[in-house]
Design a protein that fits this description.
Order of helices and strands: EHEEHE
Distance between the termini: 13 Å
Protein name: Ethyl tert-butyl ether degradation protein EthD
Strand content: 25-35%
Radius of gyration: 14 Å
Structural class: alpha+beta
Number of domains: 1
GO molecular function: oxidoreductase activity
Strand order of the largest sheet: 2-3-1-4
Helix content: 25-40%
Number of strands: 4
Length: 104
Amino acid sequence: MLCITAIYPNEPGSRFDAGYYQSSHARTAQALLAPHGLTAIRTTVGTAALDGSPPPFWAVSEMHFTSRAAFDAGIAAEGAALFADIPNYTNVTPILQVSELAAA
């Protein structure tokens, strides 16, 4: 199982609208990418660092796909719409990572 992780750094002057992300962007991504092999989206929203200071990351979101080919097809078909929506919830560029889900 393929995991695409998007990490949103909490940089000085940055913003992240978690409400919009969860209620609009993630739902849109689910609707657009499910036909292309997306099986799940899991998002954590940062609230604080361990010492109570602001979180180092606004959010970390994982998208699980059946395969790399499925992800590539989904992004080819729907990526432009999803990337165009980013300014609606943040002004930071997410860091993207491709991973394989490890067996528990």
